[in-house]
Amino acid sequence: MLTGKQKRFLRSKAHHLNPIFQVGKGGVNENLIKQIEDALEARELLKVSVLQNCDEDRDTVAESLSKGSRAELVQIIGNTIVLYKESRENKQIQLP
To answer: Model pTM?
Structure first.
């Protein structure tokens, strides 16, 4: 689990990132979760945007994604979800 201080640190890091995944009409599926796991391994921190036409609400999407990819949910802001997962191979982010 992340502490409040670590979440603040990750939020400031994520601020400059652009969402690299979009969840739309299809919702969350195995393929999306697999791609997010791979991206988290490469980047550790990423944003996912929930499109207007998504059938599920953003909280449900955030929960499905964080559980499915075993990542920490850093924040949900607007329709954007920020996820963090420590990389095994290429660790870049040093948490406070």
So the answer is: 0.93
